[in-house]
Protein 1
Amino acid sequence: MNNSIQWRFSTIAFSFTLVGVVVFLQLVRIQFSPQVEDFREQGNSYSGFWRTVYPARGQVYDRWGHLLAGNRTVYQLGVDLNHVDDPAGIAFALNLVLNEDYARVYQIVSQEPTDTAVYAVITDFVTPEQVNQIKQLGDTIGVYTSEAASIKSLDGLVFTPHLMRAYPEETLAANILGFVSRNGEGYFGVEEKYHDLLAGEPRTIWFSTDPNKVEQLPDIPPGANIVLTIDREIQNMLEQVLDDAVRGHGAEAGTIVVMDPNNGEVLGIAVTPRINLNDYWLYPELISGLIPFNRGISKAYEPGSVFKVLTIAAALDNGNIEPGTLFQDTGAIEIGGATIKNWNQGAWGEQDMVGCLQHSLNVCLAWVASQMGPSDFYSYMSAFGFGHTTSVDLAGEVSGRLKTPGDSDWYVADLGTNSFGQGISATPLQMVSAVSALANEGKMYAPHLLRSLINNGRQYNPQPQLIGTPISPETARTITLMLASSLENEASISLVPGYRLAGKTGTAEIPTPYGYTSNVTHTSFVGWGPVDDPAFVVYIWLEKPSSSIWGSEVAAPVFRQVVEQLVVLMDIPPDDVREALGY
Amino acid sequence: MIKAAHTTILQAYQNAPWRSQYQAFGILALSVVMVAIVAGIYLNVTARAATIGREVQSLQEDILTHQRINADLETQLARLSSTSVMEARASAMGFRPLSNGSIVYLKVPGYAGRQGAVFAPPPDPAYSDSVTLPDEYTETLYQWFGRLVRDSDAGAVVPQQTTFLEP
């Protein structure tokens, strides 16, 4: 090897060595430079990303397993800024299909991508049908044109699927279910009450882009599923009957509550108005102002004569009266300086307690309450649950008002008016809860809608909660028979052939700042049956009907319509059949 | 004479320039081969790990996708069998709502009536999902020998089965 060649080899070797040394020194310098943290963060940012995983929201079923609230796929529509070819075309397409503002979309899509921003969200909750329409536009590139714009390319559009709440029954049981907003919050009803259970627990997870560092996703359990006590068929029937009644009687609104008195299971709550839960954002337009979402639990009112069943039950239980106790009705009674008269201003002469209920005599009931005295009367009413909420598992329940001795606005005269349901306010569910004691041997179970909870592969069935025994079983049976006789004696329009029922009508004047109205009323009916083995309590409330002001003409026939269908849906044979079959 | 010749040959062999070069080249080549083998094995393992990692990622995405599709399909099914749709279908097929007077009731011995929705087993305190590993996986050699002796004394060696824990 001559010197020339050797020199060249030496030079090349030296050069490579020098480069290596420089690279090595540079590596060392970087390791100790102030920018090392920046480089480290930059490196980490390429190694993966954090993502919050939201578990699927738990589903809601009726007692037979029909889905009432589920989830459906929608799409978030975004744009990959590095791949946008035709901002105007994208803006035009989204304007065409989604009615999105052209200028806004164009502004988003036209952004220049940066190191930290390569993706922008245009809109969310786009339905699969709309996505298909957009994609079809993309397939007809160059074909779909108008004078305003043309679509050359939809490249860059990104469709990201995710779940959103859906209600397959739409308006059915809307006021029981409530709804979930687009940010995942539950509002009203079951959705709000059980939000924490249904929503599950979102987890933020590190997703590695390095395949060598991929780890199994942690188990993120979906939200718990719940089974409600309501029966879809009963709920549907109640809503149909209620809508017909409200329309037929020209009522302002209406409520029907059905409960099983044996365990407190609410079988249905129908109210007006209702919304399609899939269009919940129209809620303010349909249910505006002070109208509650669920009148059954959120609107307390003075129930009127339906309350009399509780006064008589309390007096029977307290030993102040018996069914045969006679009262001489002179047409007026004075209590606490206030004169109380009957609904027709008349005197009904000698009446027993069945007659007092049958003719709904205010004077008689005020006398009964005066025989009890305020202490016992309010003690019983409190035991029936008035003045405090029932703690039903629905959001938005109110407690109503029970004025008691000692309150600054309680007067002795209130004892007389409270006895027939005036000057006391309660929600329909409170009334049903109280009356359930009369229908169930004196026992009162907490009204509830949760039948089962399914979580982590197990189904939990909470036991009914006994919340009190305000009256004895004997009293309960006695008042039930009294009310059954009362209905039969007057050949009430509420009677259902084949079934012995107990019940009471109610017509309540409405309090205003200027006193009680007399030409506008709240009409109600509370009833239960079959008398020998009550399986349901039904409460009807129609507000301000225009066809008649009397509960016996407005609410009683609605009760009959409900019970006629209820006994079919609940598989309750007529009394004689049950007796023959040995039930 | 022989010893001198042997020494000469040995020296000649040892000092042969081609031998030193071969030795150096051999060591270098061996090193390269060793590095190549290690690199190859590493590359192979890494590539397989990466492939499986990608598959895991893909399967995880598939699981999420299928869960989403299942939820969506269940809701679609519920919509197709909703009250209003079923009522309309029944009506179109000529069915009408039952009235109370048109029902014939029969007593069916043993029939408990319609049962509520059951989606999962109840929480049963008698059994737990957790399983114990067989003794073979956990016991020491000494413990195994002791068990063998005890079982022999008892007359038989019973194979250990996977058992459920009872609280």
Note: The mean pLDDT of chain A is 91.
Protein 2
Amino acid sequence: MIYQDSKTLLAVRGLHATVNGIEILKGMDLTVRSGEVHAIMGPNGSGKSTFAKVLAGHPAYEVSGGEVLFEGGKLLELKPEERARAGVFLGFQYPIEIPGVANSQFLRLAYNTVQAGRGKDELDPLEFDDFVREKMKLLEMNPDFLDRSVNEGFSGGEKKRNEILQMALLEPKLAILDETDSGLDIDALRIVAGGVNALANRDNAIVLVTHYQRLLNYIVPDYVHVMDSGRIVKTGGKELALELEARGYDWVGAELKAGVRAST
Amino acid sequence: MSTALHNLVNQPYQHGFVTDIEADVAPKGLSEDTIRLISAKKNEPEWLLELRLNAYRQWLTMEEPRWPNVKYPKIDFQAISYYSAPKPKKTLNSMDEVDPELLRTFEKLGVPMNERAKLAGVAVDVIFDSVSVATTYKAKLAEVGIIFCSISEAVREHPELVRKYLGSVVPVGDNYYAALNSAVFTDGSFCFIPRGVKCPMDLSTYFRINTQDSGQFERTLIVAEEGASVSYLEGCTAPKFDTNQLHAAVVELVALDDADIKYSTVQNWYAGDENGLGGIYNFVTKRGLCKGVNSRISWTQVETGSAITWKYPSCVLRGDNSVGEFYSVALTNHYQQADTGTKMVHLGRNTRSTIVSKGISAGHSNNSYRGLVRIAPTAAGARNYSQCDSMLIGDRCGANTFPYIQVNNPSAKVEHEASTSKIGEDQLFYFAQRGVGAEEAVSMIINGFCKDVFQQLPMEFAVEATKLLGLKLEGSVG
């Protein structure tokens, strides 16, 4: 939701990034204020997921230009774990499996590390168990998730719920959800979206990276951005997503080219 | 590899100091004269000298094994000193008379030899270079009839027991290094648990190589009579030298009817530096004989040190319904090489064995599991379950699995599972994105990976092993 007294959480200016020497982000600009929900859409290969990973500090991507301010501080100078502790959360498109490590252990380590980083109290295993079970109800998760190895053998829907559970535990200021809707059936989508909506408040912000309008029926964005060739080429309200759904992405590119011609 | 992963696997070795202590060292070289010298220094009976000479003569006809998946230059057996003993000022009557320099050494290593030993409730035998320097808790154990002393002392005090069992599990000509050990072993631990006695505390031997050009050839013999049980722990460290030292030990376990022996090792011999210079050649023969019905022998090992490890703690399951177990974590880093595993030889009916092997390779190291499961025609109803998992850290290391399965009885059931995984950038990034740095992430992944083995270790050992793996991997994640 757009609030009058909101603060700027994230300011991305002219961001360029490469992977294996190939430039993927080519001058990305984006401003996100507290309380807002943004959707980033765009065709395959337009740089949406790269943008999400670069913000979180994935080591495979190299920033080759531009800057990112998070709550006024230089985000790109922080290590990935420092960004997480500062309140940047990435919901993974493909959550990573960690065999042999129980989900409960992993979740508690993550929770306590982030709490400690924020100068807040850590929880012992028993306290944490109560705490996490409460959060799991929000996502209608079966408690035996806690005993299973992290994401190992989880269905697509279970993995995505586990991501949102982590978001619920870590209470980020900025949650970037990368294709959280992919691989979800309609019931799982409803549950996951319900979880995200329950976590949204006027102090945090959510950036949804998605291909499809479908998710936006459940999580209603304040802004919809269209990415193409590594930058945002069009921004509108939630109705833009419906138009994209109806007309595809090509017309945005065509409009852009026309605009370029008109201005030269 | 990211820097964090790199730094995590590269923690400096902490036991690499040398103790300046006067030692009685035999001249280098190996011949019948050397063996006679060792035997004479130890005032051994004639039969033991004969056993040694017999082993030596067999050794002369044998070839160094070339089948392990390890590479090293040919060892010059004439360049090694086969006897090195800290010079005693006089005969020792109590721990107070042990050379304080020695005590300080073990203090540094964290080995409980005195008051702390009592608190920890562990009886310790300490082997420095080739000889046993101290055994704690002897009197208390003697009250229940347990003999726990150095093997030299056992030869003097209990020759009939030693003669009966020495070489009964690992014959003197069993293999190249076992033959060498049988010829030149200088000390080791002896432990005898009489019929029906459950050993009231964990027994422990601590091995330390101190001299640069000496080999360490210790011999351990553990016998558990009918219904007896014992848990035995073994720890090893050595100073840093830029040459390689040879460690060729033999361990024999004998379990009679209903007896139970649990043998745990945390091996942290010096592994060489990050370029592969120096380190121990750890060529060890360990074998347990489940001689009686319903007996059980369980090996648990955490192998983190040595330049080269060549070691297959095995069980011969002769008694009906006997059980053999092998739980292993082997970690290699830098240029370390390990070829380790087990042999489970099923002879008796309804014998059961379990093998759980976890290999972790980092740096440029090479880590092989080699295991044999043999079901003899007599072993009706035998069962084996094997699980061999490998984990790779970085992309310059190697992991191999060589399982050998020979089944000669149709009623046997043998299962083998294997997996290979990799700690990758993506896993570490996932942890990082949840606020957790690489060191903690690797430690959690490794502990998860080794959980099934660590659960088998006695409590303090499990804590030590967990810490040790963390230290060993420090710097390798990156």
Note: The mean pLDDT of chain A is 93.
